[in-house]
Amino acid sequence: MPRSLLTLAASVTSAVPGASVTGVGSLTAGGAGRCDSAVVSLSDGSRVIVRAPVDATAARELAAEAPALRALTAGVRELLGFRAPRLLGEAGLGDARALVCDLLPGFHIDAAHIPGGAGAATSVGYALASLHALPHSVVRAEGLAQRSPEEARSDVRALIDRAGATGRLPVRLIVRWRDAVEVDALWRFESTVTLGGAAASSFLYQETDMGPAVTGVLDWHGLSVGDPAVDLRWLASAPEAADDIYAAYSAAAHRSPDAFLQTRARLYAELEFAQWLVHGHDSHRPDVVEDAGALLDSLAEGVGADSLLDPRASASGGVDDAIALLDRVPEPTAVHDIDTSMQTDAYDPEMMSLFTASEREHSANSGGASPRGTALNGDGARAAGLRDAGGDRPSADEDVSTAPIDISAWIDAKAQSSDDDSADDEVEADRAARAAVHRWASSGSE
């Protein structure tokens, strides 16, 4: 049973000495239902966020976030070009621990809606470069995870083997991924401090004269040393902005150029489907296995016989390179004492079932046809349609091996699938964020 807002507010007084609560409200963004959350107003005029886990996965995530935020000392924060939450305190809440952090201002922009050009896109690149430039001692001081290039490579190899053992992974993907793993040059990268798997939802924006810009970063529970490409894999779902984010990131990076950064990022993005398959197999969920299998079949059809290291697939890094995942599978939950990028048992099955349910409902309401030509099969799993940058289905002789997988209808169905107050609030917040982007884009074109 969800904890009441009053219960969450009361925990703030235990976690933060001297805190005097004057109000409490719902938190409508983030958490994916895995935490009971509230925004609490204090007598000094400040507002804080309190979160308490609802399951073991969320408990591990919050337990990992506490030392990560402690690692961000005042000196470390001065090195960043954005704000990060401050851990204000912790308190027992039944058999769980509640975390209290300050509330950062800003709004989210879905990956698919981040505009290219100066502004939102470039600020993301600069923010990630700033994070990756932090000294490794930041992570070592709190005993957080550190993964070498060879360990990252071994983790990928192990995941491919586990996914292949299910019997549901297409052979062409096994070949594509194993070929990439065996290329030594691909894994000669300089490990950096990372979030352990950033997502579009990790970034908070505020409006500036240059348009929306990143002013805050969330999701610190996976703070570690590892492959910087792990924090860039989500760019596969941001085809409009990916080029400019990569360009800004490369320009601001304080290390030797990484020729295979985008290739590894795309590999990690594709492996998200394999993680979902392994999770379904290990948790004995045939519905998840079927869903992951359908996605992997679509991916295999899209990439064809192409290699990840084919110049056609890796030279530009633009929209024709992107594999547009668009939040198709849940983000892995990072745990600080294991590899965060290849965590396979960290998906939220309930969240995924809600996604498939929303698609099923949308399919029924539209007579089985999904908007923008994206097909749904009988059990609700998506067979993602391939489209070119202009939005038209490619011709039979057109090379679509690295074209985006257009599953934007997933977002539309997800936004329409619930009519409760919290969902309405989130849709309204998303509408406000898009309006801010539109105002900026319109003013720039005048």
Describe this structure as you would to a colleague.
There is one protein chain. This protein has 446 residues and is an alpha+beta fold. It has 2 domains: 98 residues, Phosphorylase Kinase, domain 1; 335 residues, Aminoglycoside 3'-phosphotransferase, Chain: A, domain 2 (Alpha-Beta Complex). Helix content is 41%, strand content 14%. The protein has 14 helices and 13 strands. The strands form 5 sheets. A 5-stranded antiparallel sheet has the order 1-2-3-5-4, with helices on both faces. The protein is globular, with a radius of gyration of 21 Å. About 23% of the residues have low confidence.
Brief overview:
The protein is of the alpha+beta class. The protein is 41% helix and 14% strand.
